[in-house]
Amino acid sequence: MDILRTVIFLELFCVCPTVLHSLKYFRTGSSGVPNFPEFVTVGLVDDVPISRYDSNTQRVVPKQDWMEKVTGDEAGYWDRQTQIAQSHQQIHKVNIGIAKKRFNQTGGVHTYQWMSGCEWDNETGHTDGFSQYGYDGEDFIAFDLKTKTWIAPTPQAVISKHKWDGDADQNEYLYNYYTQGCIDWLKKYLDYGRSTLLRTELPSVSLLQKTPSSPVTCHASGFYPNKIMLFWRRDGEEPHEDVDHGEILLNHDGTFQKSVDLHVSSVKPEDWGRYSCVFQLSGVEEDIVTKLDPEVIKTNWGKTEIKRDGEKPSDLTIPIVAAVAVIAVLLIAGIGFAVYKKKPGEELKSISPWHFLAFTF
């Protein structure tokens, strides 16, 4: 598993749903990986990176200019977060050692991941939280918010489950934090970055084809946020055969691009007019509909691009990062837990997500 590419992906990849908002912290500890920090933490709001720490720099730093506003409400914020991240680093090193013993491992490359955070639907008010561990890219242990207990999908994590389930007060606090305190911080960060996180940009749409026998690609680029639907439609319905969906990718300017392929080899020429590519952006009523027309397909033998009036042509160079997205999803599927012991009289909303002290396995 390529840790370096995964962490780069997490720092670059951005998501900003218009309804479901999220605050996430990804922490990756590694052992036996040369020329790479043994511990990295990335904080994200709507998957836009807001902060970063690694064991080489030994400092938590903001990743967005608007995150500097936090110091107005929280004096000494970045110093405190740095101290907490440094303590997390030490605990992560211990946990890798414990995990290696449980899996009867000695040397080699090993990774330890922890994802924690919360989600808030600003239309329904529904909230959710998560705290998950992963080891070597596989699920290790995760907190069940409904039962306030830990789930251990692997035998090596059963010891940790019994250990953490034995502290009911700790699990109760964890539940309260992820359903209340974390949500308060999410709303605060959303307010800080309102001009960036809550903007809307429509894309230009192109039909592309490499060769006459290749699939026709509907490519949308320049949209924001990435809460979108891009699909082929035939006679008003969405076909599921002969269609391949691509990943949502990041452009250099912070917008996104996505493509969906239609295999036209099985489509009769007289039926091409029955197909259209449809782009839908959450919160925008009007769809962008592009009919499958040979005259507007951009090919290697030179045809024109479809774009909305007043919009610039899209950058047709598609970054090859789909593989990185898959790796990231695999890591995200099994990532971590940390808990902060609430002091008497301390309000949940005053606790930064960084304040959780990681416990050992």
Describe this structure as you would to a colleague.
It is built from 7 helices and 17 strands. By secondary structure, it is an alpha+beta fold. It has 2 domains: about 230 residues, MHC class I-like antigen recognition-like (Murine Class I Major Histocompatibility Complex, H2-DB, Chain A, domain 1, 2-Layer Sandwich); about 100 residues, Immunoglobulin-like (Sandwich). A hairpin with a 7-residue loop joins strand 1 and strand 2. Helix 1 crosses helix 7. Keywords: Glycoprotein, Membrane, Signal, Transmembrane, Transmembrane helix. This is Ig-like domain-containing protein.
Lay out the secondary structure.
Elements lengths: L2 H10 L7 E12 L7 E7 L2 E7 L6 E2 L7 H4 L3 H26 L7 E12 L5 E9 L2 E7 L4 E3 L6 H8 L2 H25 L1 H4 L6 E6 L6 E8 L4 E7 L8 E3 L3 E2 L5 E7 L12 E7 L6 E4 L5 E3 L22 H11 L29
Parallel strand pairs: 9-17
Antiparallel strand pairs: 1-2, 1-5, 2-3, 3-4, 5-6, 6-7, 7-8, 9-10, 10-14, 11-15, 12-14, 13-14, 15-16
Helix pairs in contact: 1-7
